[in-house]
Amino acid sequence: MMPVRRDLHFNLLQQRACDWHAQGSHVTHFFNALSLLFPAGERFFMDSVRNYRDRIDDPVLKNQVLGFIGQEAMHTREHIEYNDLLQQAGLPAHKLDKRLWAILNFGRKVLPHSCQLAVTVCLEDYTAMLASLLLEDATRIEGSVEGYAQMWTWHALEETEHKAVSYDVWNTVLKPGLGRYLLRTGVMLATTLAFWLIVFDYHVRLMIADRKRGGHLRGMWRVIKYIYGPRSWRISAHRR
Ligand SMILES: [Fe+2]
Ligand SMILES: [Fe+2]
Q: Ligand 1 mean position to 72 CA, how many Å?
């Protein structure tokens, strides 16, 4: 599949930044926590693929890389705007964004390019899995405030479109063998741990900052039901 760069803007209502999801504010902040990961995260993805661009000869893969970078650049631009709304709503969005930039800049300095590309391959796999969760079942987003629902659907569709690109680059530029396999699987284990710890940490910090909502234990249960529960639970859930 050839990823297509689409220059789209979304009309996000600032006053609904903490409560745009149909399943309430705790699910909203789960998505908001993910949004805070994108500007630094997607820049890291683009750079780690760019590091190997000169070693790709296949014209189709070259174009797929261009499409991938174009899509991620658009996502980054839109999520920066989205995250500014979170900051305006009184959430520590800029602080958390800066923290991730610091972590990933450190990774850029100390990790070899192959390891950085492996991190990207793993996280692109995660974003594609999250995207298909969102797209395969309309109850995961329906009834939410329009601009936000459109933006997440757009992002999920494009993540699905370009999900194979970094892995194809990986297979093209790294020598096959046990070393490559161990690097990929080892990085997947480490990235899984780091990714979910950061998502959980950011999610909790956003909920604490949005103190006026309260009911955090009940809210977390709703998030768990939202992510892992059957479809019928999402249909029957009412807003707060
Ligand atoms: Fe993206
Ligand atoms: Fe992506």
A: 5
